[in-house]
Every structure is written in structure tokens, then in C-alpha cells.
Write a sequence for this structure.
């Protein structure tokens, strides 16, 4: 299944809210990703996602609509050579290889665009699909921290996966 990475647009609001307002998406995200995901939250997200130059946060367009998002978050201070990768994909498109390929594209973009040497992601231990996608995209598990995160009333393991600039 093909997809396109592109900047978010105001006319993505309806599909963003429709797909993001799903407890199965929210359970794998930080609490900054709200549930319920309202139009107000969607407008705020699109505004934030389009405010960076160079572009850092992209819509994942599938079948002509924004069906997910992926972005890099460059770090500061002593972590300034790192960027955190975050992403989500609408549930109807899970298991089709879309997020793995989107991760590969954003990693290439990140190393070409930003002065960084490492891109990392921190999936929950329970997010098997995300872990597999990262591994298929060349990320290596660097660390596992048992029961350090608290989400929806339960403690979860925090995993740290990373890929480093080659050469």
C-alpha cells in the first residue's frame, strides 16, 4: 500500500480527528496525545506541526487523506546531537508495512536535514507492532526500563530504540 509523507494542512482536520480519536491509538501514545481527540486539539496540533522550519512533523497520507503522523523532535543541551522519533498510524492501516517505510524515510530526511548523529524512539513494552516496525527499519534496542511509565492506571516498560548516522 502506498503512502506519501507531506506537511499537515488545515483541511486535514476532519481526517485527523476521525482517525486520532481512537483509544487504541491513544493507549500507545504519551498523555500529550489526548483522548478524546477533539477538533480543538486537532487545530492546535496542525498549527504546531506546521510551525517549524525545516519541517519536522509530517502527515502520512493514505488514499488521499491524512491517516497518521510522523515527526522528529531535535533535542537540546547535551542531547543536541539526538532527535526523538514519534509516530502514529490509523488503525485500519496497521500491519501493512506503512509505518516501517515511513520511519525509514523520516530517518533519511532527519540525517540529511539536521545536525544529529542519533535518532531514538521510546515505545512502550506493550506496543509489539511499533517495536517490530522500528526493528525492521534498522533500529536497535538500546535499553529497557521496567515499569517506569504510568499510563491508564498501570505501569509500563519503557524501551529505547535508536539508529545512528552511518559513516
Amino acid at each position: 500500500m502506498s503512502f506519501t509523507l507531506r506537511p499537515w494542512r488545515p483541511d486535514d482536520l476532519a481526517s485527523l480527528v476521525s482517525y486520532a480519536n481512537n483509544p487504541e491509538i491513544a493507549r500507545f501514545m504519551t498523555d500529550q496525545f489526548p483522548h478524546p481527540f477533539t477538533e480543538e486539539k486537532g487545530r492546535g496540533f496542525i498549527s504546531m506541526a506546521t510551525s517549524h522550519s525545516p519541517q519536522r512533523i509530517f502527515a502520512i497520507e493514505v488514499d488521499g487523506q491524512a491517516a497518521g503522523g510522523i515527526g522528529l523532535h531535535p533535542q537540546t543541551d547535551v542531547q543536541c546531537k539526538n532527535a526523538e522519533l514519534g509516530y502514529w498510524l490509523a488503525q485500519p492501516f496497521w500491519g501493512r508495512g506503512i509505518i516501517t517505510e515511513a520511519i525509514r524515510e523520516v530517518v533519511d530526511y532527519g540525517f540529511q536535514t539536521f545536525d544529529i548523529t542519533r535518532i531514538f524512539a521510546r515505545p512502550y513494552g506493550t506496543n509489539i507492532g511499533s517495536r517490530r516496525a522500528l526493528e525492521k527499519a534498522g533500529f536497535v534496542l538500546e535499553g529497557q526500563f521496567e515499569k517506569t511509565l504510568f499510563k491508564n492506571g498501570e505501569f509500563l516498560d519503557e524501551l529505547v530504540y535508536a539508529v545512528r548516522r552511518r559513516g
